[in-house]
Amino acid sequence: MHAMAKLNSMPRRADRGQAVIELALTLPLLLLVVLGIFDFGFMFQKFEVVTNAAREGARVGVLPDYTPTDAVNRALQYLDSGGLGGPGVTTVAPGSCGGAILANKRCAVATHTTTTLPAVGGEPAKDVDQITVVVEFDYEFQFVGPLMNLFGGSLGTTRLRSVSTMRIEPQ
Predict the structure, then answer these.
(1) Residue 88's closest CA among 142, 50, 52?
(2) 9 within some domain
(3) Strands ordered across the beta sheet of 126-140
(4) Does residue 91 have a pLDDT over 50?
């Protein structure tokens, strides 16, 4: 019979700290990736609320006897119900909110415009009334932003913006 070689299950002296060093080098990167996934998931959820708020505002704005101010108020109410409350800027002036990015700032703008559609075939040109609602929210990264700031990065706040345009049907 052959003698079986004895397996050495004890690590050599030089390999004892290798696992600890590998963990120390890879754990921060792994945590950054995992926290980044959480952060972008939260941002995407808030972007969906902003998108739906713009759509809801435009939907109210096309109803009979409603004004662009009513559309803005509905968009801000939707932001409140979606957990994006905070200081708001309400305006019905043309354009967008603009300005510097501030934490937890939200804004809604509604404009009523008339667009002339060109003549097609034998049909004459038509004037079409529409309402456009712009909703903006400044999202502050919860996990990755503060970590990037420690290392001189600039991933702190980003503006989420959604635009919804709907046609006002003649009555």
Answers:
(1) 50
(2) no
(3) 88-91, 106-117, 126-140, 157-168
(4) no
